[in-house]
Amino acid sequence: MKSHTLLMPLDMHLHLRDGVMLETVAPLTSYSFSGAVVMPNLVPPVTTKEALRAYKKRIYAALGRLEDANDVLMVDDFFEPYMTLFYQNYDRAFLEEMADEIAALKLYPAGITTNSDSGVKTFDLEIMRPTLEAMSDLDIPLCVHGETDGFVMDREAEFMSIYEMLASHFPKLKIIMEHITTKEAAAMLERYPNLYATITVHHLLITLDDVAGGMLQPHLFCKPIAKRPEDREALLHLALNAHPKVMFGSDSAPHPQHAKETCGCAAGVFTAPIALQLLCELFDAYGKLDNLQSFVSDNAQSIYGICPEFKEVVLVETPFTVPEHYGKVIPMYAGETLAWSISDIE
Ligand code: DOR
Ligand code: ZN
Hints:
With about 350 residues, the protein is α/β, with parallel strands linked by helices. Helix content is about 35%, strand content about 15%. The protein has 12 helices and 13 strands. Helix 1 (about 20-30) crosses helix 2. The two termini are about 20 Å apart.
């Protein structure tokens, strides 16, 4: 039986939500990943030191990672939530104070996706400059949801001019193009040394045809929406060859079933519990399993300068039937059988 071992897998873009949903989904990621970059688009978004620390505590609690009265960790299941703040124009003193506690700031254009209403309304460099300069000096990466409010299939490509403006004006700022979906974004990576990208597993597997080509598939609907076959090919090329500026970020974005299977379907694909199995199957199919380690961990460690705790995940080519649901959330490929499963974790 074929098997493949991954060391310290990292999910560099993850939605953990809050409350009962957090309790449902957090253990599904901490089980097989060493750490994840946690998105700040709660309601209200995470914008203060107090909110960030309180959210991190709730994540630990959801993982059963208990702290004593002095905040000393008593139980540790080897998972690091890399926290992010929701991008606003913060002052330098605040960012200096937060630098050790955050992995990045996450920028959303206002209204572009779930819980992004208080995002950036206009990309005015003079207004953003103090924050971006401070981030650059403090080596805090800027993660960006790169979509305009144009025609849905063109939104990411239209955003490329904003990436160019940011990358050229702040050449030392690490800018991460989150969940890229187009050949335009893949090409943009090569043009600026300070641009990086995350890619989801669903965008490596599906195109718009899978979402809306037949019966509408709400559980495959996300933002940015899956694009054309040639776009998927460009993403596959980057991921399968473990391009050093590219990292795995699932963008696993759980919504309860009632919010997906309704008029006005919420955007988000829930992949956390099946991501590594799908990636093994995909990389194996292309004879590229040797590159998976870099894509799911090593590149992220270099780009973010992080050193995750040890975790070894053994996957085997044994069928795994995806559960119909996890709590109130329907995962991608619910009820279908994947070729690989997780056999052991140390
Ligand atoms: O599909 C998405 N869902 N895209 C995003 O950018 C946000 C996410 C969410 O939070 O549900
Ligand atoms: Zn996201």
